[in-house]
Specification:
- Its EC number is 2.6.1.16.
- One of its GO terms (cellular component) is cytosol.
- It catalyses: D-fructose 6-phosphate + L-glutamine = D-glucosamine 6-phosphate + L-glutamate.
- Homodimer.
- With 368 residues, the chain is an alpha/beta fold.
- Helix content is 44%, strand content 17%.
- The protein has 14 helices and 13 strands.
- Strands 3-8-7-6-4-5 form a six-stranded mixed β-sheet, with helices on both faces. A five-stranded parallel β-sheet has the order 10-9-11-12-13, with helices on both faces. A two-stranded antiparallel sheet has the order 1-2.
- Strand 6, helix 6 and strand 7 form a beta-alpha-beta unit.
- Helix 4 packs parallel to helix 8 and helix 8 runs antiparallel to helix 9.
- The chain is globular and about 55 Å long.
- Bound molecules: 5-amino-5-deoxy-1-O-phosphono-D-mannitol.
- The site of 5-amino-5-deoxy-1-O-phosphono-D-mannitol (M6R) has 16 residues, from helix 4.
Amino acid sequence: EKGGHDYFMLKEIEEQPEALSNTLRGHFADGGVVLDEQRISEQDLRDINKVFVVACGTAYHSGLLAKYAIEHWCRIPVEVELASEFRYRDPVLGRDTLVVAISQSGETADTLEAVRHARTQHARVLAISNTNGSQIPRESDAVLYTHAGPEIGVAATKTFLAQIAANYLVGLALAQARGTKYTDELEHEFSELAAMPEAVRSVLETVPQVRELATRMCDAKAVLFLGRHVGYPVALEGALKLKELAYMHAEGFAAGELKHGPIALIEDGLPVVVQMPSAKGHSQLHAKLLSNIREIQARGARTVVIAEEGDEAVRPFADELIEIPAVPTLLQPLVSTVPLQVLAAEIARHRGYDVDKPRNLAKSVTVE
Ligand code: M6R
């Protein structure tokens, strides 16, 4: 049942192209986004002037990405918050607020309580979940189901990529309702999303390279992850995967913060995994990251660089280079996360741990 793989997680990583295409299929028709359940009126959707995204763990990282897309496409301010923090600080909510609750299981206690709190304050709630009929969708006003299929590994992989796609669909739905994008623009954005399963299929070709790299990284004391813009949530996700599976000290940082503290951690041989923005798509940030890499390498870090194919400028500073296909900036996390998932799983395996059932963790966290 593991499809010839040593553990479920690797199978699930390889299922990501299907998870994405199944999630996209049926959610876009006649130039617009189709939700699975929709009890928010067109008028109310148009009046939304503030979005909160609430989630935990990996789902929270996907939520951080929702902010980039929704603010860019819809011009609505978006705040992304850990569900466990949300209701304890008395957030400002009302009828014009949309709360997007993201939960693979649909049963996470903190996310469910955040939804309940939002509803007592008359906010509209839209759930993104991979589990039909689970509690969070049942208590929400609108639902978009990801169709990633069942995920056995405790670590979220294919559901994460499906959540990113779902978040972007919600962004397009809001843009459509508010009229900030024309139908042809919506269709264009959707067609770029629809090309991603193929791009993920091609990034899966790096699996053997990353597995080999893992054999050389499994004795590291710690690993740092750096990124900027959409690469920042990916850095956080890479670090979370390594913590939960390989029980290693791992931290994700926004690369711009290096000089404000984290650079003091750099020492000889410390692996630092860097998410490189596209040189064409984001040339300013590309230049900034390049100088960060140069700096940390000069201080002895071992640089593991995830960069777009054809990024020649980064080569001299990459002790290890993992190439990913060129895709639009907002969509880069869908390809750049994949090597980090494989890296964490394989390091865990080499350290002798159960990749699918890491210690102390449950697939669904139903207590606060
Ligand atoms: O079921 P949910 O999406 O609500 O779960 C949220 C987190 O518990 C989950 O993403 C957790 O962080 C994963 N084990 C990470 O791989």
